[in-house]
Design goal:
Blueprint lengths: L2 H28 L6 E5 L5 E5 L6 E4 L2 H33 L15
Antiparallel strand pairs: 1-2, 2-3
């Protein structure tokens, strides 16, 4: 590498890192998170459903459509409860470790 190229990399290296982070973030935001919904038709009628990647997200419905709707509702409720539990844990930890800075922020998964 020539001295001029090294100088330019040093001078503009941070700029390029910022641009690369922006591009990665842009495409990450465009990517939708995908979860696997499982629907099991029961012999006596109706469906039992759950999301493989999210323990605790399970429900049932008389029809497939009802089971799907109930599953989305269950996912929303579980996420809200887990978010609240996490906030409480963070508050509790920050009181115990008052010298330590704790940062929380929401992220979007593009859904």
């Amino acid at each position: 590498m020539a001295i001029k190229e090294i100088y330019l990399l040093q001078k503009f290296g941070l700029f390029f890192k910022i641009i690369i982070k922006f591009v990665i973030n842009y495409y990450t935001m465009k990517t939708k998170m995908k979860l696997t919904a499982v629907f099991s038709q029961e012999e006596d009628g109706g469906y039992i459903s759950y999301i493989e990647e999210m323990p605790g997200v399970n429900t049932q419905g008389d029809t497939l459509e009802e089971a799907k709707s109930n599953l989305l509702e269950a996912l929303t409720m579980v996420m809200e409860v887990r978010r609240e539990m996490a906030k409480n844990e963070i508050l509790s930890a920050s009181k115990k470790l008052s010298k330590q800075k704790i940062i929380t922020e929401e992220i979007s998964l593009g859904v």
